Structures are given as structure tokens and as C-alpha cells.
Amino acid sequence: MLAHFKTGLKNILDRAILNHRDAHEELITDYKKVDEIPFDFVRRMMSVVVETPGKKYQLLTKGASEAVFARCKFYELNGQILPFEREHSADLTQQYEMLSADGFRVLALAYENLDITAQITKSDETDLILKGYVAFLDPPKDSARTAIQALQDHGITVKVLTGDNDLVTKKVCREVGLVFDTILAGHQVEKMWLIKKSWI
Description:
Layout: H1 2-5, H2 12-18, H3 25-28, E1 32-40, E2 45-51, E3 57-64, H4 65-69, E4 72-77, E5 80-83, H5 86-101, E6 104-114, E7 128-137, H6 144-153, H7 166-175, H8 186-199
Parallel strand pairs: 4-7
Antiparallel strand pairs: 1-2, 2-3, 3-6, 4-5, 6-7
């Protein structure tokens, strides 16, 4: 539903879902989009508000697992809403890291039932109910290893810039034969840029 209702560019995960819309088209027919909180790289999540067939409102959220877990107060299991405790977050994070190490891109899904009285903002993405997570596998193209080797044979050093986490990145690099000794996260690169600016 999030992939269907979000505006702007569709990422590869959205496209994978929408390519199989026949499997879920009937489920969203009676839902209406009311509002949207776009993705940004600080929150690392996005949300849409929908009106359900029962004329109620729900905030639906997807995003980086650790970011969504931190905003969840409950989780749903077999139709029951239960308190989301710290140990649940630790267990889910361990599963997320195992999937990431195998090359899967993982997104957490959560929701909240709303009583809309004003415009929805980022501050409403709290006390969420964790629904679960989805894992996608997007393996490198068969030609990637050969292409990288050809570049290296010509003396070209290959660097990887990616939005994936370090675990997925390590897995993909190994699969394409790319040897690495350092991985820098976004906040580390940003810090380097700030230091460089201070020298100018």
C-alpha cells in the first residue's frame, strides 16, 4: 500500500512490489490516501495516511529497520497488540543484521490508528505498532564481476557509493570480487567534508 500511494520517484523495492500489483490490487481498492510524510535521510522513513474502508484513519510507515524500531511502542502478533520491549528490538535487530549480511535489503513496516484533527507531521511518527519487515534480494548483474576486473586491469581503482548499509555492501562487494579495506558511513563522510571546509 505504501508503494502504491507514495509520490515522487519509486525506488527499486517499490517497483518490485508494483510489478506484482495483481497480487494485492484488490486489497487497496477501498483505501484512500489522505496525506503523506515524504522520506528524508534524517528520519530514514516515510509515511502515508489512508482512510480505511471503515472510514477510519491509519498512518502507515516504512523505513530503515533500526529507525522504525525506535519509534514503535507496540507490535502486532496474530491479531493481538502487545507492548514492544527493548529485548524485542534487540532480537529483531539481530535478524535484520543476519539478513543484511546475506545481501538482503530489509525494511520495517509499522502503523498507527489515528484520530485526524490536524495536518499530520513527522512528530506523529511515534508510538507506532510494528507490523513486521520485508526483505528483498537484489543480486549484482552477472556482468558486474567481469566489468570491475576489466577496470582494475586498466589501472582504474573502483570505489562504491551506495545507500545500502555496511553489511549489504560487504556482501555485494565480495560477490563481484571487489576487495576492500575501509567502509565509510554517511556521517563519517560528512564529518570529513566539514573538516575539509574548515581548512579552506
